[in-house]
Write a structure and sequence with these properties.
Length: about 120
């Protein structure tokens, strides 16, 4: 599995909020998500989410009307892969940001840095 497949599985999980199987297909059992802030907390680590259960709970907070997609992955620093993501929603909402990820041996995401753009 390559980074594009891993990110596609992550997008699928985000587009199915609350589906623990979708999250488990995307993330390694011991995956860590580092969520960074925007606005006044831009560039700062604001939350660390560890494990499938915590990640599933976080994804479940997303509004079902939001739709995620991402660009093809490119090589990043320290063995990570990077991709720009987009999120769209009602009332012409468009947002986005950047993900950086390292993959586990099975190709699932082992570490993800989530950096949203300012709204």
């Amino acid at each position: 599995m390559d980074a594009d497949v891993a990110f596609a599985r992550w997008v699928d999980a985000l587009n199915r909020p609350g589906d623990p199987l979708a999250v488990a297909r995307a993330l390694a059992d011991d995956a860590v998500i580092e969520r960074h802030g925007f606005g006044a907390t831009r560039g700062q680590l604001v939350q660390t989410i560890a494990g499938i259960a915590a990640a599933t709970a976080w994804v479940a907070l997303l509004r079902p009307a939001l739709r995620f997609s991402c660009d093809p992955a490119r090589a990043g620093e320290a063995g990570a892969f990077v991709a720009r993501y987009r999120v769209t929603g009602p009332d012409d909402f468009v947002g986005g940001g950047e993900w950086a990820a390292r993959l586990a041996a099975d190709g699932k995401i082992a570490w993800l840095r989530h950096v949203p753009d300012d709204l």
